[in-house]
Amino acid sequence: MPTMATPNLKGGAGSHHxxxxxxxxxxxxxxxxxxxxxxxxxxxxxGCAAFLHNSDRVTQSHRRELSLDGTWxxxxxxxxxxxxxxxxxxxxxxxxxxxQPAFVEPGPKVKDRREVEQKDPRRDAFWYRRTFxxxxxxxxxxxxxxxxxxxxxxxxxxxxxxxxxxPCFTPGYFDVRRELKTGENEVVIRVGADRNxxxxxxxxxxxxxxxxxxxxxxxxxSLILSGTPHFLTVQAAPDITNQTVRxxxxxxxxxxxxxxxxxxxxxxxxxxxxxxxxTNRVGAISKGAEQTILVNxxxxxxQLWSPENPFLYTLHVDSETDSFETRFxxxxxxxxxxxxxxxxxxxxxxxxxxxxxxxxxxxxSECGDxxxxxxxxxxxxxxxKDMNWNSLRYCIGFPPEFWYRxxxxxxxxxxxxxxxxxxxxxxxxxxxxxxxGQLALEYAEWMRVRWNHPSVVxxxxxxxxxxxxxxxxIRQVRGLDLSNRPWDNGYEHPQEGGDMxxxxxxxxxxxxxKLTQLAEVSRAPQGNVQTNDGSxxxxxxxxxxxxxxxxxxxxxxxxxxxxxxxxxxxTTQDRRHLYARYLAxxxxxxxxxxxxAGVLHFTALGYSRPDGQTSDHWLDVKKLxxxxxxxxxxxxAFEPVGLMIDFWRERxxxxxxxxxxxxxxxDLPEPWAGPVTLRLKSGNRLxxxxxxPCRLDAYGRTNLNFSLHLPATPASYNLEAELPGVGGRQxxxxxxxxxxxxxxEGVAFQKQASASSTxxxxxxxxxAVDGNPATYWSSEFSDPAWLQVDLGKSQSINRVxxxxxxxxxxxxxxxxxxxxxxxxxxYSAKExxxxxxxxxxxxxxxxxxxxxxxxxxxxxxxxxxxxxxxAPDAAQPQSNP
Length: 881
Fold this sequence. Notes:
This protein has 8 helices and 49 strands. By secondary structure, it is mostly beta strands.
């Protein structure tokens, strides 16, 4: 293989032209201008005849595309000097972590994952090199496309500097016509070794959870060749009402002025049958000029695309000098402002799904080359469909382009999220250097790559970020999309009425939260900021906060949660079972109350590491084997015809309820009818079975009430509701509860309680001794505050159990009294953290017990779910509720 001469990075001696400014995006001459409500985009300077923006293969004779994917040479080095020796091999597409022999710590672990800055101390850049052969005369247009590369792309061909493309998540297009030669050619690509290589003025995928930012050319590289006039963009915008596709073509001419005859042919992708065609004659286009053509093509026997029927078409556009082929689906998607529902192809559509955080998976020990194996990626999306999910959010990062082709083919709706996550503005992480103009440039390039994919239904500008820069960027570019897809703007205001609002209602972020409390919380998801005024559809695209690592250990965010729920000696099976059952119940809660356009759990693919914050549900990620408990219970919770036992008590003391409500819902566009069965069990013993007929209209929902008399005998019980779902598969909703002997609750159960203050009547002191952990007493938001209970008579006690709500006491004392006047302190806490406090002391005679808070642990008041008092040798509660 020939060696490469040291490139002249200044474009002076040894280089007969300067690098193209249009590829150094922070210095770009691109302009975004409003023209009669549409965006006219000047995409290139006159010196750049690069072809834009489609990732589909083209096989027609007018255009050739030479794939440069495969094995490249790679070496590490500085930013300004190519290495003298390339001593490793690496796959393209892929990451530098796949190089052989392996580099030492490529993408090293960051010192502080919360800090935006990140520098690799070992090297500044990685340099890729390969050769390829080109036969024949060099055509008028020769563009080398680097689909995605982190961090920043600098391209050389045959020793000459071509240009730079700093953005990490959109393609770089490089005009190589002057350097391309017949025979063997050498291409060299430099990428930065870390996020600092692209500066804070360019988005680089900052993520509060990532430990490593691994660079590399992680999408395809190709050489695109054609004559001119040539196609810059081709957009296919479906009009399902009129059964036509609106095609917008942008032409550029870099030769002598000449007219062109443009032909359009639409075919069914699978059968190849032609279903629409048209021609359009274009007058002579001046050299260096661009022209836009709009054509409406009727589709014969039009078939609509949906997750249930992912029917695809191909559009072939041809001229005498260029040709282009893309795929599209006849699909329309929007959010209805009146109902707050998603509407797919004119009908209500309930989004059920999950998230894929691919850039987090990049740092997972099991990642390897899996994201670039088509068979693995296709099975992943098939596993998604098998979970009854029809939607995914590609979260905090775009995958390789072929993932979108697979989503089109398998039928998955994609919320496509641009990799920006800096959190609420109070964290002051959003880089001051990153402006809306830069974002608009990258948003525009992103849209051109994806706008023909029917799977992409939501443009998502960022994740959980509050900034004044994304809104103006959205307004500048949204007119480019002729399909007018809705946008999500993270923690900022939606920009138009049809845009959505993301909500992340994590019930279990409070480690003291229990499933029983779903009976008391709001059924309307509001998210984490107060920007939703009720006029926008809400999509819950994150919820839960119950994560376990793949080995069943809690993550750093859930260790306190599992300790509170299961105690300190829980097994892996205990935790996996609770996770699955709680997540299924949380899913049923959000789906069955119908307050959100979509319910997407977090997350289907992520990472697993001992010091990680979140994780996924794979038992074996390489074989794509779900953890069995998750698959068993959560799949049912996402069934299109589903149900929810609207009974959340986990502990019952005293008179049991006399009826059990069951909610039944239908996501289908046709009616459903069948029996709904409710069973009461204790272990393997069936106690009672009830059945009711049920009929639901399309998209319907109903409440059934079962007159089930629960026994008074203390024991563990199970409720099981069941119906025949789609295809006759039995769908279940399950609840576990205990009926307890009142003596087990201790001597404070249902006794007279009082407090120094009460926030509202529903938080009365009596709620802290009613035996129901879903209710609680809350003080006003001030220090100090106390709660006390009158035991009714003086007696010996030696244990107090305080179950705090999220508003706990950081400093408090427990005191006892025989007369309610003179108090004896039996316990003092200075650095309490909430949850459950089990307090033991030497036996004391007392009639009154007081919990006195002096310093709050939150900005709210003091809140106690249950205050229990026990006599010496009293029985322990049968569970740790």
